[in-house]
Design a protein that fits this description.
Elements: H1 2-17, E1 44-48, H2 54-62, E2 67-71, H3 74-82, E3 88-95, E4 99-100, H4 102-110, E5 113-122, E6 126-129, E7 140-143, H5 145-149, H6 152-157, E8 162-165, H7 169-179, E9 184-188, H8 190-196, E10 199-202, E11 212-220, E12 232-239, H9 245-254, E13 259-267, E14 275-282, H10 288-296, E15 300-309
Parallel strand pairs: 1-2, 1-3, 7-8, 7-9
Antiparallel strand pairs: 3-4, 3-11, 5-11, 6-9, 6-10, 12-14, 12-15, 13-14
Amino acid sequence: MATERTKQQSELNLWYGARQNPIEHDDSGLASNRISEEPGSGMNIAIQGEPGSFSHEAALKLVPGASIAPFALSADVFAAVADGSVDAAAIPIENSLAGSVSEHFDLLLNHDVKVERETLLRIRHNLIAISGASLGAIDRVFSHPVALAQCRKFLAEHPRMEAFAFYDTAGSVKQLVELRDRHAGAIASRAAAEYYGAQILAADIEDNPENFTRFFLIKRSREVEQDPAANKISIAFSLENRPGSLVAALAAVSALGTNLTKIESRPVHGKPWEYIFYVDCQLRSREEEKLALKALEPHCSMVKSLGCYREAEEAGLEDREQGIGNRE
């Protein structure tokens, strides 16, 4: 029994060794772009995570044919956009089941970047293994904690499979292919399986099919292309500390006929019990952007537009047919 435990721990150590440096970087500090040789738009789009991830899919949906620059940390993605190392970035901002990506709201506020576009991506999770592996042989499953949480029913139906949190969905596929681990599986996208040359053992294993992630395309503020058909704005604001200030601020925007579709609060670092509010509003015209910001100003100590863009259409919920392709 002790020998079996030692063997299992040794195998897990191999897996988690990858977490120390999950993404390679070149001498310039930019993450090495393993698919930059693909012809396309000429735009270099940063993502957080490995190639084959859902962010990779979203980036190609937002900018077809773009080159992808993967980074380990979201903060590095935003820094690369701000300093011009990349042309833009595709970032997840909200999942229909897991909620908002709070860190990305903070990074949007603290960098000189703006949202140019948004899209919705259907999230389909798959159990992936190396070629030749069988479902009955899998006793360990690795993936990002959110993906594992969204596949609880499948894992409960296969009690032999023990779930382990990993740094990235596509990264878990990359790791199992590199280790040639026949007893390990990964939960990730179909594109990840294709990119790393792995096989899907079970498709669409997510608990809830109504699983979508909203992604932003962000650029440096001065380089954002203005869309005359923009009908949505994201705004960050903070309030004066007085009774009724939030109600007054929202009432001022509502008086314009603007439809508030989302509100989120985040604590101000270093200032206990003070908050930044993030809101999304549907606009009837591009001119309404300035009116909404002006309506907030008398009630707020800070107001910032995070971007005015076209709302993702219902067609954006359709599955993307184009695959990322294999490495070869």
